[in-house]
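Exam prep: given the inputs below (a chain plus 2-phosphoglyceric acid), describe the expected output before reading on.
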Amino acid sequence: MKILDIDFKIIQDSRGKDTLEAELRADFSRKSVFSLRKSALACASVPSGKSTGTHEAFVLEPKKAVKKFKEIKPQILSREFDSQEEFDNFLIQLDGTPNKSNLGGNLILSLSLAFARLKAKSENLELFQYICSILRPPQDLNIRPCGGLITRPIFNVINGGAHATNKESKLDFQEFQVISQVEDFSVAFSVGKIFYRKLGDYLRGKFGAENVVLGDEAGYSAPFKNNEEALDCLVEVIKKYNYPLRIGLDMAASQFFKGDYYLIGNKKYSAEELKNYYLKLIETYNILSIEDPFFEESFEDFAKLNVDLSGRLVIADDLTTTNPKRLKIAVEKKSGNAILIKLNQIGTLTETLKVVKMAYENNWRAVVSHRSGETLDDFIADLAVGINAWGIKAGAPAKPERLAKYKRLLEIYSKQNNKNKI
Ligand code: 2PG
Ligand code: MG
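Solution:
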């Protein structure tokens, strides 16, 4: 594929911070008797995290990134790229650093994702089909990529930790999620949406409307006095209406790790004490998944929790940062059974899909995730379906940047359902 032009815009993310949007135009002309000149456009923008892992790809300040881009633009335009891998590898090589600190992971990712959209168009494929065609997952796994069960929506309905916006909130854990247990995506989404509204009513009744605001990922932020209080609220509303929902947590524990202990409320915990505390919570609240329960270098402590959890997920996020080298260590040490997949942690679609492949080959699940600072780009919806992820974290069903992802998922699944009916 020949790229004819590339343009960059600086746009604002959901926190009002500058971020990049790339626009690529490509030549789709076919050399045939009727050779029509056809060109197509595709855009992609990049999100940003707040509780970021140390090993994530480097984020270059957007204005500097645009300047840098001008230096490399002629080199991209002077070539043709036959595949995603060729394009992404070319950018990786132009950057020449291990963490993309020269061109910026954000600059590289926006180009990689816009390229994917264009290439999918050129092959007459939906984006998720294109992603699936690259992944070509092994067939004999009990995880069935590209055509298995639906990707479960994971709604982050109470925002704590670094994502809380209510100053009185005492929640150490970052995300209190509900995970749908139904098999039809539109039903799963409706359940999440109704639950979110009921929970809002419940919290406004409990704390007073003026004390309940929305956090970074559109979940509620309120003056909860501790983590258990938030969990109790979730259980209360789930039980009251008998919703088919289970609870998930993202501790983002690096945020409350203080060097040689973990601080929860005013209490200090060793890793062993913290593990026992988690086991109690898992049992009491029948928790289905638990993400980043320990500091981002604690492969062994993750492993100690990841035993006898019968069907529950221990998800690695800051621990693995969508990075093959980190995942390799985590697999060897049995630090989890699922990896969080964030495109901007590694910086290209090709590398992301290699990590997913490695996860599947080792019988790990994959959960695709947004970032706390998001744009309206819905790429992760196609990514989740394309790799047949176990779940997708796209926030609460509110605020345009979160709803954009759910809207695209609804569209994809309704197309698939209609196809199945024919
Ligand atoms: C996480 C993410 C997304 P952030 O920790 O999983 O929910 O948060 O984007 O702030 O790193
Ligand atoms: Mg996380």
